[in-house]
Specification:
Elements lengths: L34 E3 L28 H8 L3 E2 L1 E2 L2 E2 L1 E2 L2 E2 L1 E4 L11 E4 L1 H16 L6 E3 L12 H9 L2 H13 L5 H17 L3 H14 L4 H17 L3 H14 L4 H13 L3 H14 L5 H12 L3 H14 L4 H13 L3 H14 L4 H13 L3 H14 L4 H13 L3 H14 L4 H13 L3 H14 L4 H15 L2 H14 L4 H13 L3 H14 L4 H13 L3 H14 L4 H13 L3 H14 L5
Antiparallel strand pairs: 1-9, 2-7, 3-4, 5-6, 7-8
Length: 597
């Protein structure tokens, strides 16, 4: 029988399906040039701080948390006001110049507290792995003629809550006496405000109007195209989104946000080559940002290139050593390569950084389980389940650990809880059925395998094979034969099914058919001791004693503890009047199985 273990796979959607939970930060637009994108995380927080301010280097008198020290290492500087660090909610504010924008808008900055910047970074990574874009903003202050309008509405349009700001922007837009630049700026900002509150159609209308009113403003329009592209992407209109991102990078080849959002669509479409090209460009424009390396690593994993994935994850860790997800993901790749010591070290570091990361506890449990440390593995699985009690896959993983060490009742309990959480978890039914078979509870095993077949899951072949074995053990030869026939229809080279069908044909008196199945099974799996024993038994029954002894000897070599193989070989030797060997094999058979008749 085949035991299906529910492991966290590396080369598939499961690698990076579980990332850190992230808080959603509220943002207030700063100007008519606000840009939304799924860009590198730190290109967002300028909108949460009011007007952009010039960064000031920290002095030795200011103390920093590890998270804040990580920001300083990535080029951020603490903002000061009246000689003291400026704060929001008691946390220091950090800014970094938006290097990806280039010298044309030198005042563009990215600002936020350590928590805001870290939260949005994780949100960006998750959205990109899901193949979607998220709203991240970069902006510049109102400039030039735009400062000439109504002071109250101008300030509110830039800094107020969305509801108030939208009303203020609308008054400016409808004021025919206001300067054209100010009305245009208000239109851009209202588009962003509408988009940030989920009114995508109205936002698209505003962006389209701006693009029609000011076709010559290249840099500003690049950001407007990027915003409109994001709105289309969030509506599921990927084709229009791609067209807008293409236009954005054509107008401003240094706008990294457009490349990153375009990469998100390529990831969603599994167009890895184009996604990699865009991510490479983001990294060229902003090499100190960790997020593109993490996303690129996911693609390398999907392309079965673990070495490149590890290189990118290592770079991301160097840029942001406090990102637990990066440590966890690198550990998963190391585990896939068989480097369990390094995988365990990374999982442990991820847990130190984020003790509530259930996936990291589960990763560590799998490593401990594979190294034979069953008790510690079970403890880690239990921690993962305690953190995410509704995670049926974690229940299955712990059950697999119990089953591997023979604790079938505990395994059945975990599989049953997993099924209660999600009745479509096919591998929970398969492995619970295996556990029931171990307890010789054939009816419950058959019921579980039948449930898998009814789900029409990829495990259908395993379910037919296991159900056939359960029916065979129960004495239902006809039902078992039907199941093995179905396995062979699904997979004609299934050696185990051939072996079992050979046994049933032998039991039904079809020696020629049995030999044919055993021959095929042995060709496919030369080290299948049971197939060699089965063919040896048929040869014994046919009076082909030398051939029987040859097959049974091969079976014993592969499995020296098989009492039946010794028993059959003893009979073959006896038929050849080789009493010494016959007696020796008979004694060995009795020693291995004292209850043998």
């Amino acid at each position: 029988m085949r035991l299906l273990l529910s492991l966290v796979t590396v080369f598939g959607t499961a690698l990076l399906s579980q990332t850190m939970a992230t808080a959603q930060t509220s943002v207030t637009p700063q100007s008519e040039t606000a840009v939304q994108s799924s860009a590198a995380a730190t290109k967002s927080a300028a909108t949460s701080q009011g007007p952009a301010v010039n960064p000031i280097s920290a002095t030795p008198a200011v103390s920093f948390t590890p998270e804040e020290q990580s920001l300083l290492a990535r080029g951020f500087r603490v903002v000061k006001e009246n000689g003291h660090p400026k704060t929001e909610g008691g946390e220091k504010i950090f800014c970094r110049k938006e290097t990806a924008i280039g010298p044309r808008i030198p005042t563009e900055q990215v600002c936020g507290t350590a928590k805001q910047l870290t939260d949005i970074s994780s949100q960006t990574q998750r959205a990109m792995r899901d193949g979607t874009a998220i709203s991240v903003q970069s902006s510049t202050p109102v400039s030039g003629a735009a400062r000439a309008g109504s002071g109250t509405d101008r300030e509110l349009c830039i800094r107020a809550s969305p509801e108030v700001a939208i009303a203020s922007c609308t008054r400016i837009i409808n004021d025919t006496r206001a300067p054209a630049d100010l009305r245009e700026a208000a239109l851009r900002n209202r588009g962003w405000l509408l988009q940030s509150t989920g009114e995508l159609d109205r936002a698209i209308e505003d962006y389209t109007s701006v693009l029609q009113l000011s076709p010559g403003k290249t840099s500003l329009n690049a950001r407007t195209y990027a915003n409109r592209g994001l709105a289309y992407a969030n509506k599921g209109d990927d084709s229009r989104a791609l067209a807008d991102y293409d236009q954005a990078v054509a107008l401003d080849p240094a706008l990294s946000t457009a490349y990153l959002n375009r990469a998100a669509i390529h990831v969603k479409r599994e167009d890895d080559d184009r996604a990699l090209a865009d991510l490479d460009e983001v990294i060229r424009l902003d090499p100190k940002e960790a997020s593109p390396y993490l996303i690129r690593a996911d693609i390398h994993v999907r392309r079965h290139d673990p070495d490149r994935a590890i290189a990118d994850l290592s770079t991301a860790i160097a840029l942001n050593p406090l990102d637990a997800t990066a440590w966890r993901n690198r550990g998963v790749v190391y585990r896939a390569k068989g480097a369990n010591a390094m995988a365990a070290a990374d999982a442990e570091q991820a847990i130190r950084l984020d003790p509530n990361m259930a996936a990291a506890h589960q990763d560590l449990a799998l490593i401990l389980q594979s190294s034979g440390n069953a008790a510690s593995a079970s403890a880690e699985f239990s921690k993962a389940i305690q953190i995410k009690p509704g995670d049926g896959k974690a229940m299955i993983a712990r059950g697999d650990g119990y089953l591997a060490r023979g604790d079938r009742d505990q395994a059945i309990s975990d599989y049953s809880q997993a099924i209660a959480i999600d009745a479509k978890l096919a591998n929970a039914y398969v492995n619970r059925g295996v556990a029931y078979m171990g307890n010789a509870d054939w009816d419950r095993a058959i019921a579980d395998f039948t449930a898998v077949i009814s789900l029409g899951h990829a495990f259908e072949q395993e379910a037919y094979l296991n159900r056939g074995q359960a029916r065979e053990a129960k004495g239902d030869r006809e039902g078992a034969l039907a199941d093995f026939e179905q396995v062979l229809r699904l997979k004609p080279d299934a050696a185990v099914a051939l072996r079992h069908r050979g046994f049933l044909k032998q039991a039904n008196g079809d020696s020629r058919g049995a030999i044919a199945d055993y021959d095929r099974a042995i060709t496919l799996a030369p080290n299948d001791a049971e197939a060699r024993r089965g063919r040896g038994y048929v040869e014994l029954a046919q009076g082909h004693y030398d051939a029987a002894i040859s097959d049974l000897t091969a079976s014993i070599t592969l499995n020296p503890k098989d009492a039946l193989a010794y028993r059959y070989r003893s009979l073959a030797y006896a038929a050849k009047h080789d009493d010494q060997h016959a007696q020796s094999d008979d004694q060995t058979s009795l020693r291995l199985d004292p209850k043998r008749p």
